[in-house]
Amino acid sequence: MKLYSEDSSPFSAPVRVAIYAKGLTIAIEPPPGGLLSAKFHAINPVGTIPCLILDNNTPLPESAAIMEYLEDKFPEPRLRPAGPEAKARVRLLQRIGELQIMTPLVELSRQADPAQRDPSASVWLTRLVRGLSSVQIYLGDDQFAAGAQLTLADCELAPALFMLAKIATAYGKPELLQAYPPIGRYLASSSRHPAIRRVLAEMAPAWEIREPA
Ligand SMILES: N[C@@H](CCC(=O)N[C@@H](CS)C(=O)NCC(=O)O)C(=O)O
User: Which SS3 state, helix, strand or coil, does residue 135 take?
Assistant: First the structure.
């Protein structure tokens, strides 16, 4: 099994958190020939990273699908709690993280230079603010998003939220995070986990993210 990923890739970061947290020995490599190359598209017709190459050589793209697969294939240590309600909460936070926080941040990062900004930026900013408002409702005093244990929700949320400061500054809103105290608390507590800490350190050079103290 092999994961095509890049340190700078926001959508790859959650999968790497899951791999490190589970202690899996999966080779992690950049896409052969580069992300946009014909060579990589011949391997993965969807063309995106992360992409897991299964043992039967099937490419599995899409970060959420990869994390579900890894959870099914290597259930211990669990990153998805038992019980339908607990599972639903993790899925909910994962979805908010991917669709309402990570995706807007990636779209906004493409337009970080004000000279290259188009009207879609304000739509993505609105979606981001809705995502932040939504996620903070669910964050309590626990170390992680859905309780005392690391879950797939944290794999998604922690890397996304650490990108926030960089993007917010580019959009003239460096204080954005301060408007969400539960999110600030969550960032500090979740980043104590070694798997999250490792991935944030990998992302830091590309995103100029200040690593947590
Ligand atoms: N929904 C996908 C998004 C993946 C994605 O857009 N990845 C970026 C890199 S972070 C990519 O491969 N971009 C190249 C492209 O879209 O052609 C996922 O969660 O895996």
Answer: helix
Does the Cβ of 143 fall within 6 Å of ligand 1?
Answer: no
Q: Cα(159) to centroid of ligand 1, in Å? A: 15
- Residue with the smallest CA separation from ligand 1 atom 12 is 48
* Residues of each domain in the chain carrying CATH 1.20.1050.10: 84-207
Condensed to tens digits (0 to 9), the pLDDT of residues 190-204 reads 999 999 999 999 999
71 touches 128 (CB < 8 A): no
Whether domain 84-207 has CATH 1.20.1050.10: the reply is yes
What atom of ligand 1 comes closest to residue 36's alpha carbon?
17
Superfamily of domain 2-73: Glutaredoxin (3.40.30.10)
Q: What is the pTM of this model?
A: 0.95
Q: So what's the pLDDT on residue 212?
A: 47
Both structure tokens of 211: 């690593």
pLDDT at residue 165, rounded to an integer: 77
Residue from 7, 11, 62, 66 to probe ligand 1 pocket by mutation (most atoms less than 8 Å from CB) = 11
**Which ligand 1 atom lies nearest to the CA of residue 102?**
19
Q: Give 167-178 as a DSSP string.
A: HHHHTT-TTGGG
